[in-house]
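Q: Structure for this?
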Amino acid sequence: MDHQINASSSTTTLDVLASLGVDAADLKAVWYAFPMAMFVTPDHFGDELEVTATALRTYDAGDCMADALLNVVNELRMATECTCTFGHEGGYQIATILGDICTKKGKPSDLALIRDLAPVMEAQALCDEGKAIARAALQGLELFGPEVEAHITKKTCPAGSCKAYMTYHVLVSRCTGCGKCLKACDDKAIMGKARFVHVIDQRKCSQCGDCLPVCPEKAIVMAGAKKPKTPPRPIPCKRKK
Ligand code: SF4
Ligand code: SF4
């Protein structure tokens, strides 16, 4: 969530959050916008710092930090008209890599590439925003590396927020076997027959979401990191229409 803040020569993140009426206990990170361009995690909320930014963003457990990093990198890219090779091209490369990671196209070499590129970019970029992109990328990976990496190695978004990693499931307790979802699925990813609990084949499902609104029982749900238990094949419905 974005907030406007006042500059202060010496304060703490806890004090800034208190002045905004935000409960620090609910947060996993704070981002101070440019020119600070830095993340602060709860273990440093009590540290003294000079606040030169006029905007702050808060993140809670439901926010994905790979997506957060992508957003701040893109905002910094938009904030400068500098076209130097390292600032412009480096920012583009980092944003492309993070975009791929958030959309299930990340590769095992991606994080090493950012870690190699960012220090060179910070040293060589001509504009302050370009240098800030490099610092933000490095700091983001240092603080949230395992969460970002899980998108690549475990093919999951731990926060359950990136749409590309959401999966669709039919809840056994709610399905009446009416067959409406089966007809709505162009990918033929749904298995079932009358009065049997329908089952979504995750290998065939393209996560289009077309089945979600057609189910009269609200039996189809989206899931992030935590998946509901479903049978491998259709089973007789317990629930009657
Ligand atoms: S999300 Fe789309 S592809 Fe997946 S089961 Fe539903 S309709 Fe089929
Ligand atoms: S999931 Fe919904 S639409 Fe599909 S068979 Fe079950 S009740 Fe019908």
